[in-house]
Design goal:
Elements: H1 3-12, E1 16-17, E2 28-30, H2 43-48, E3 53-56, E4 67-69, H3 73-88, E5 92-96, H4 101-112, E6 118-120, H5 130-135, E7 144-148, H6 156-164, E8 168-171, H7 179-182, H8 185-202, E9 205-209, E10 221-226, E11 233-240, E12 243-250, E13 253-262, H9 267-279, H10 284-293, E14 302-305, E15 310-314, H11 320-332, E16 338-343, H12 352-366, E17 370-374, H13 376-381, H14 391-400, E18 407-411
Helix pairs in contact: 1-3, 4-9, 4-10, 6-8, 9-10, 11-12
């Protein structure tokens, strides 16, 4: 079946599922494969559970005209999403970056939703499956979309921009993450830069931090943000105790915004939202209100006050650059006493121990009152802090010797499961 014919079926049945346990009546099931499962095996179950069609790529599971046999289910899903995007033709902002892309996406969504009927990436649907599923949620009622794009290997962003065809692009920053997949920091830069490569070819525009990533941004129309007065969106940190308060200017008028976001390092993310709002002619007061009202979720720089302590929970992800700025910010916060609970940074490849040792060196300069480390790499390089081999072992110790009256930074890779500590602190 051609994409055009499949698209006609989709128009009449505009709901997609890839989970045979969730089959709304009239939806289309795409039988994706994973490392440990083959969706083809569940096509019959999906049809019996409410799906009107099942798209498969193994003829052994063909059970009649309601099964649509294609060469590759994933590629078909991506092609269908791309075709749908082209048919609707609405403006799309594509976001990638090592750190801050989800926060920036959420801030953009908060600002743009004050004027437009907006679709934006939910949760972490930012990969080769999540991006097409997001695009297929677009309807004729939407006026704009913000699509987050993640990467862990060279070519990942190129694959996604070829599906999305964004009109505008933002690279929040480039840092040392997923080095195991990228091979080097230069590989990270090249891969993130694939967004700029597409924008350049398509004569789109980018929102970019002033004087940042200019080496890969040549030849592209730029809308700038930063702390210099010559940026399109200019702003400064006022305070961060613990929430970020910042100023930004428009036509000589100063706007002060009190956010619910932890960390001065989020200034670039809020200014990106200001730049996008200004570019799309959203009134300044509305931009400021939207940013002030935004509250982070999903363990991303969240602040939580418990009966015993005040917590900064940043346990959704961690890499050397995000770890450094989180520690720098915590060091400068005028609070006492301070404790840090850090877990391993994953997917850093052969340089893992060296990069964890850099974090340990930063900890030694920070003069923290309590330090708790856990994980394979911290156990190797942070012996002076008596690290724990696992998160579970650290949880057990904190239950025996609970902390009380501390300001605590909790940060580590998502797979370390540090978010569970919030319940015992």
């Amino acid at each position: 079946m051609s994409i055009i014919d499949l698209y006609d079926l989709f128009i009449h049945n505009p709901q997609i599922t890839t989970d045979s346990r969730n089959c709304p009546k009239g939806s289309i099931f795409f039988a994706l494969k994973g490392d440990k499962f083959d969706g083809n095996q569940y096509a019959g179950k999906a049809l019996a559970s409410g799906c009107v069609y099942a798209v498969i790529d193994n003829p052994d599971y063909y059970i009649g005209e309601r099964t649509i046999l294609v060469d590759n289910v994933l590629k078909t899903l991506q092609q269908l999403a791309h075709h749908h995007r082209k048919v609707l033709g609405l403006p799309i902002i594509g976001i990638t970056g090592t750190n801050g892309k989800t926060t920036t996406k959420e801030l953009l969504a908060a600002v743009l939703s004050t004027k437009f009927n907006l679709l934006y990436t939910e949760g972490n649907f930012n990969n080769h499956i999540g991006v097409p599923l997001t695009l297929l949620r677009l309807t004729h009622d939407h006026e704009m979309a913000v699509i987050e794009m993640g990467a862990s290997h060279p070519g990942d962003i190129k694959e996604l921009v070829d599906i999305v065809h964004p009109n505008y692009g933002i690279i929040t920053n480039v840092g040392r993450a997923h080095l195991e997949g990228f091979g080097s920091f230069e590989g990270v830069i090249r891969t993130k830069g694939e967004l700029y490569d597409y924008i350049r070819r398509s004569k789109g525009k980018i929102f970019i931090k002033k004087e940042y990533l200019q080496s890969i941004a040549k030849g592209i129309e730029q809308i700038t943000y930063g702390n210099g007065d010559d940026a399109f969106a200019s702003g400064q940190v006022v305070s961060c105790d613990p929430f970020l308060v910042f100023n930004w200017k428009q036509q000589g008028k100063l706007h002060t915004v009190e956010t619910h976001i932890i960390g001065s390092y989020n200034l670039d993310n809020v200014l990106a939202a200001v730049a996008v709002g200004r570019f799309f002619k959203i009134p300044a007061e509305r931009i400021s209100r939207a940013i002030a009202a935004y509250e982070p979720t999903n363990n991303r720089s969240q602040f939580k006050k418990t009966d015993n302590n005040e917590l900064i929970i940043d346990a959704y992800n961690a890499n050397p650059s995000s770890m450094k700025v989180a520690l720098d910010n915590f060091i400068t916060m005028p609070v006492q006493p301070k404790a840090i609970i850090l877990g391993d940074m994953r997917e850093l490849g052969p340089t893992s121990d060296e990069l964890h040792a850099e974090v340990v060196a930063q900890i030694k300069k920070g003069q923290f009152d309590k330090v708790f480390l856990c994980g394979e790499h911290f156990s190797k390089v942070g012996k002076e802090f008596s690290p724990f081999a696992t998160t579970e072992a650290m949880v057990e110790e904190l239950r025996k010797q609970p902390l009380k009256g501390y300001h605590i930074l909790i940060k580590g890779s998502h797979s370390m499961g540090l978010e569970k500590l919030a319940d015992i602190l």
